[in-house]
Specification:
The chain is mainly alpha-helical. It is built from two helices and no strands. The radius of gyration is 18 Å and the shape is rod-shaped.
Length: about 70
């Protein structure tokens, strides 16, 4: 859970830093884009965590079968 929160916070910070370099965007659009990017990073982290969990569970079952 902590890693997902850290990924979310770094996603927000990185996206805000990138968006602030774009002079033609309104501040509200910059914040919305940062939130959307952070949500995408969070979903990717959750899917990655679930994939690792499934892989480890599968490897443990294979090891027990031997």
């Amino acid at each position: 859970m902590r890693s997902v929160a850290c990924l979310w916070a770094s996603g927000i910070a990185g996206s805000i830093a990138y968006n602030w370099s774009q002079p033609n965007m309104k501040t509200s659009v910059k914040i919305i884009h940062a939130r959307l990017h952070a949500q995408a990073f969070t979903l990717a982290a959750l899917v990655g965590g679930a994939a690792v969990e499934c892989y480890e569970r599968n490897q443990n079952e294979i090891a027990r079968a031997k």
